[in-house]
Specification:
2 copies of one chain form a homodimer. By secondary structure, the first copy, chain A, is an alpha+beta fold. Chain A has helices at residues 21-31, 122-131, 133-158, 162-179, 195-202, 206-218, 234-239, and strands spanning 2-4, 42-47, 52-54, 65-69, 72-77, 83-89, 94-95, 108-111, 115-120, 188-190, 222-225, 228-231. In chain A, a hairpin with a 2-residue loop joins strand 11 and strand 12 (228-231). The model of chain A has no long low-confidence stretch (mean pLDDT 87). Chain A binds a DNA duplex (30 and 30 nucleotides) through helix 6.
Chain lengths: 247, 247
DNA sequence: CGGTCAATTGACGAATCTCAATCACCGTGG
DNA sequence: CCACGGTGATTGAGATTCGTCAATTGACCG
């Protein structure tokens, strides 16, 4: 992994600055008079697609990171070789917010595309959290999104039907892309994940992911191919969701 | 649900006081000179077994709670009537720690046995978190345990084998019981969950839970019956775990 | 002594996994 | 420029596991 120790590099031109936690962090703390006291230390790194940039159990890259550019995912690997993808990371995502609550949190991270990441100073963030209530609220929000993602994944895995698992997974991902302004058109988004990736996230086999995606394509709901997803029928797509009912 | 608004009631004799977050909270804040400034407001409530004491989507019982006595679980209900149990609550558990980070977090809670719960003042806890670093660390720890539980559940649901799902679920539960000193003997713990409860937590049918439990009993690994669990062969029990490997 | 609920069991069908083979694409090296 | 090798997508057939359904049993309660 290449290391580029530049202090104020790409944030100026960051496309997700306004919609990510790290944007809030940087903009808030720079709204006060700059001093040594409110700098957030940043180290920028880049990695090629398919590289594992963080291995669970190894501490050489600790602390909170932000994905600046490209796609990646957090995952666990099992003794038998299978993986469980915990969350797909898109530009602006922190991995993981919980690192701040629990320094021992443990997972691997692999690049899907070529990526650029930024390591943030853990103590600097904690200082800002204590000093700025607005940042504290923003932190609570990204924690809540992360928990929601895990719980929803849990619920999807419980849901037996392969097609619905994939629809749920894709829906949450598309919503996050949309919230962060990452889109090709109103109904089309980048989608660099392979069938194997989707399989590891949904607990299916790549074979079945393929069959389910074809099913969705034949039924004119969504089309995932050529590194992008097209929402053919938004109404049908929404309806396929498995939402918990109010008790 | 009956309401018993007594201020310093059962905490004096609480059996899990030393091993729970709320014990830490109460003991820490009372180590300072008592004043109106560092009281934690408490409201005690009791409910009968099988009662739903909190409905997702309804706000009449908001804020963080602690389960003082008995068993319960947090869950979602689906439109088709099935439930997903998010976590089993045992005495000393807070539901949920994340309520503090995300006031909109939303779930239902149902009593398994007759229970007693305690509603804590949200603002009081936040005040203590800011004032006492020790409490802040303890809070990070229970958050981390809660996240771990959700992630492990997710991983178990990905695991296709019914027996292993149940072993994973039971293992984590037994570890939490053990950590909190809730045991009948060294190898036996209370276990008031029905097969249906286990099914809703593991994503199986009650039928299959039954078959899996019998399998485990016939293989002399664990025996779940009569509201208790006996670890027949701790070594075999441990080995059945599905632990993520180090990458 | 009915009535309800949970546990149990068996038979059957449906969904998914496994395995194997083929195809399509892409970057590499000759 | 093209053959080659690797990866991912695709497809088919068969095995396995789990869910569904129906019926029985046993425990507990009023």
């Amino acid at each position: 992994m290449k290391l580029e120790r530049r202090l104020a590099w790409p944030c100026r031109d960051c496309t997700v600055r306004s919609s990510s936690f790290c944007g809030t962090l940087i903009d808030r703390s720079s709204s006060r008079p700059p001093s040594a006291q409110n700098q957030i230390s940043q180290v920028f790194l880049s990695a090629d697609r398919h590289n594992v940039i963080r291995h669970s159990g190894k501490k050489y890259l600790s602390g909170p990171f932000v994905l600046c550019k490209g796609w990646a995912y957090r995952f666990y690997r099992f003794p038998d070789g299978r993986r469980q993808i915990l969350s797909v990371l898109i530009p602006g995502d922190m991995f993981s917010a919980f690192t701040l609550l629990d320094p021992h949190s443990d997972f691997s991270v692999q690049a899907v595309t070529d990526i650029k990441v930024c390591q943030l100073g853990q103590d600097d963030i904690k200082r800002e959290l204590a000093a700025e209530p607005g940042i504290c609220d923003a932190f609570g929000k990204i924690c809540s999104i992360e928990i929601d993602e895990i719980i929803s994944t849990s619920i999807d895995l419980n849901e037996r039907d392969a097609v619905k698992r994939i629809v749920g997974f894709v829906q949450r991902l598309v919503k996050r892309l949309s919230d962060r302004g990452i889109a090709i058109r109103a109904d089309a988004y980048p989608f660099p994940l392979s069938h194997t990736d989707i399989a590891d996230a949904t607990g299916l086999t790549p074979d079945d992911v393929n069959r389910a995606i074809q099913n969705l394509r034949e039924n004119s709901i969504i089309d995932i191919s050529n590194n992008k997803i097209i929402i053919i029928d938004p109404a049908k797509f929404e309806k396929h969701a498995m939402v918990p009912a109010r008790e």
